[in-house]
Design goal:
disordered N terminus; Rossmann fold; 13 strands; alpha/beta; two-stranded antiparallel sheet
C-alpha cells in the first residue's frame, strides 16, 4: 500500500514539474512569435488603425532595439503603365529597339502628295504632305525621344548607277554613318539634318538597301530592329544577275528581293531581331510587296495613308 502511495506521489510531482517546465518554455518563447499589433498613431480612418506584422529575430541572434515605425505606408509596386511609357521611342507605332536601322525610301515617287494631314514634331498640322515629308516628320519625332541608350543608323533607299538603266543617279543607297552610332545629342542633331536635307532620286534599289541592313550592322542580341519604309516596289537595276529592263515595279526584282532577304534575315530573326515594314502612300504594287516582305519574315506591316 505504501508503495502505491509513493508511486502516486512521485507521479504527481513529476507531472507538476512537467507542467511548470512547459509553462516556462512557453513563456520563454512567447517573444519569438509573430505579433499582430495595431498602429493607432497615424490617424487612420479605421478605428482600429493599420495592422503591422512584426517577426522577432531568433533567440540565438542579438535583438537590436526596434527602429521607430514610420507612419508612411509601404511603397506600392510600380505601375506597368508607367514602365511601358507610351512616349517611349517608336516609329510609326512600332517600338524602336536599343539598336536599330531605318531603311528610308527617298525615290522620286516619294514627292507624291497622297497622304492625309499629319502633325509634325512641333505639333503643327501639315496639310496634304508629300510622302517624303511624312518620313521626315516621323523621323524627327522619334529621334528627339532617343537617349544614349540607343544606337542607330539610317540607310537612304534611292539611286541607280547601272549603265543599263534609264537614269544614272548614283549612289545606289547611301548610309548616314554606315555603322551603329550612339544616340548622343550631337548625333541626334546630325541625323535630323541628314533626314531633312536629303533629296529624292530615281530608283528603288531595295535589294542593295536590305543587303546593307542585314550585313553591315552588329545588332544587340534580342534587342534589335530593322524598319523598312517604302512607297514603291523594288526596281531591278541593282539586283545581281537581272537585266535592267522593265525597271519599274519589276516582278523579277520583287521575287529576288523576297527570296534573298529571307535567307539573310533568318539567322537574325533567330537572334531576336525584329522586322517592321511600313508602306506610305497608295501604290498598290508597293502594298503587295511590303505585306509579303513582312509576312514571310514574321514582321509587322503598317500602311500610312
Amino acid at each position: 500500500m505504501k508503495s502505491i502511495v509513493m508511486m502516486f506521489a512521485l507521479g504527481c510531482s513529476l507531472a507538476t514539474h512537467l507542467v511548470v517546465y512547459a509553462t516556462q518554455d512557453i513563456a520563454d518563447t512567447a517573444d519569438q512569435r509573430p505579433k499582430l499589433l495595431r498602429a493607432t498613431s497615424d490617424g487612420a480612418d479605421a478605428p482600429s488603425g493599420r495592422l503591422l506584422l512584426r517577426v522577432p529575430s531568433s533567440a540565438s541572434e542579438h535583438n537590436p532595439e526596434n527602429a521607430p515605425e514610420s507612419n508612411e505606408p509601404p511603397a506600392e509596386p510600380s505601375d506597368p503603365s508607367v514602365e511601358n511609357d507610351p512616349d517611349d521611342p517608336s516609329y510609326h507605332g512600332e517600338q524602336l529597339a536599343s539598336t536599330f536601322v531605318w531603311v528610308l525610301d527617298f525615290s522620286d515617287s516619294m514627292a507624291v502628295q497622297d497622304v492625309a494631314d499629319v502633325e509634325d514634331a512641333d505639333g503643327n498640322i501639315v496639310s496634304s504632305p508629300a510622302r517624303v515629308d511624312v518620313v521626315r516628320m516621323e523621323c524627327v519625332r522619334a529621334l528627339r525621344r532617343l537617349d544614349d541608350a540607343f544606337s542607330f543608323d539610317i540607310v537612304k533607299l534611292a539611286g541607280n548607277d547601272n549603265p543599263g538603266g534609264d537614269y544614272m543617279i548614283p549612289p545606289v543607297t547611301k548610309a548616314w554613318r554606315g555603322a551603329l552610332v550612339r544616340a548622343t545629342p550631337a548625333n541626334i542633331e546630325q541625323a535630323i539634318q541628314f533626314v531633312e536635307s536629303e533629296g529624292t532620286q530615281w530608283g528603288t534599289p531595295m535589294w542593295t538597301a536590305l543587303h546593307a541592313a542585314c550585313h553591315n550592322y552588329d545588332f544587340a542580341d534580342g534587342d534589335g530592329s530593322i524598319h523598312v519604309l517604302t512607297d514603291g516596289a523594288p526596281t531591278n537595276c541593282d539586283v545581281p544577275n537581272l537585266p535592267c529592263v522593265r525597271p519599274f515595279q519589276s516582278e523579277e526584282a520583287q521575287s529576288a528581293v523576297l527570296s534573298d532577304f529571307s535567307q539573310w534575315f533568318a539567322p537574325m530573326r533567330e537572334q531576336g531581331i525584329a522586322l517592321h515594314v511600313i508602306q506610305v502612300g497608295l501604290n498598290t504594287a508597293a502594298g503587295v510587296f511590303a505585306m509579303r516582305l513582312a509576312s514571310e519574315n514574321a514582321g509587322t506591316f503598317t500602311h500610312v495613308r
